[in-house]
Request: fold
Amino acid sequence: MNRILVTGGTGFIGSHTVVELIKAGYEIDILDNLYNSKYAALDKITQLTGHRPTFFMADLCDAAALERIFAKNHYDLVVHFAGLKAVAESVAEPLKYYDNNVVGTINLLKCMQKYGVKRIVFSSSATVYGQQPTARNQETMVTGVNLTNPYGETKHVIEEILKDVVDSDPEFSATILRYFNPVGNHPSGLLGEDPNDIPNNLMPIIMKVASGELSELKVYGADYPTRDGSGIRDYIHVVDLARGHVSAIFHMRPGVNIYNLGTGKGTSVFEMIAAFEQASGRKLPVKVVERRPGDLPEIYADPSKAEQELNWRANLTIADAMRDTLTYLNNRPKPLLAMLGRYTLNLNSTTSPSRMM
Ligand code: NAD
Ligand code: UFG
Reply:
């Protein structure tokens, strides 16, 4: 199994995974429509690995374009990241999300079937768990109940489609990876999260506040039944997440197999802010506001299945993620950052140099 098509491979998680897959010896082609990523990611991947993946600028909703790619190229496996992921936008524009994520995946699966590509690794999300009786989510829990947004529904529906496809063809295998909250970026500072739109997620917002693009960080609720009142999530360094894909491919089994990719530890919003301040040596402007509708108090992964079956576990820390985020912020060519002065790493930071790559 050597040649892999990576959909969404210029995006945040996709680009980091492509780097790890190339380092592991795979030959990579990327398909992306650059809706939420930049062509420059290819240059960065090339710089980091010495290999330039073949790039197809194509939309998964363009069935004819997909057909042309599959007709000319044989793949052993598809890693499927491409999708829209903005929760609030999915509430405002549900059809855009069902169309892009679900129809796009169906088009991809049809081509895979037609051209005999029998393995897929799919980017799902912890969002499919919804609210569970316990904060620690296990793969065996019932999913898809009372999901609060169309984005989450698309992930659940795609998981169900994959199960049906595998049921219909015993030679077809699907590995479903449920990501918790990816943060950080490549330690070189070359690759990172650089959304084309206004972000909703905590870490890209912290970055925008740090760079002066946003005036303050709104903490959505300090009255949750958690240790400090703010929401608790399982933040996983994107490089650990990327390596989880390499392990998932290496240990791929027949049928449908589902794994949580998370650290197993929860961190609160206030703890994330403190970690950023510790790494940078600067205070972030913060304001506590009302809870964000649909947010859960606390959710984190039970990662033991991935540890046992994929021989993978997350090794990097929140401090590592903050250090790498600062490196990335300082590397970005943003005039505003230059005006504000570059962030420096706080020498008192707890980041361990041994974790540097
Ligand atoms: P991203 O937006 O950085 O990357 C997604 C990529 O897919 C982008 O490069 C985008 O241009 C491309 N794309 C979108 N629709 C496409 C289409 N129709 N055709 C071709 N390309 C298309 O997002 P990411 O954070 O790297 O997320 C990757 C995957 O992981 C997504 O499926 C997302 O839902 C899932 N996920 C992300 C998170 C998170 O917090 N980042 C959490 C759980 C799951
Ligand atoms: N938060 C703030 N202020 C912000 C943004 C977020 O206080 O400006 C808080 C949230 O209330 C929450 C925590 O930070 O307590 C994390 O919020 P994110 O939006 O970063 O992440 P979520 O856990 O809400 O959701 C994310 C993705 C989903 C994915 C889910 C998986 O957005 O797509 O992780 O667990 F499904």
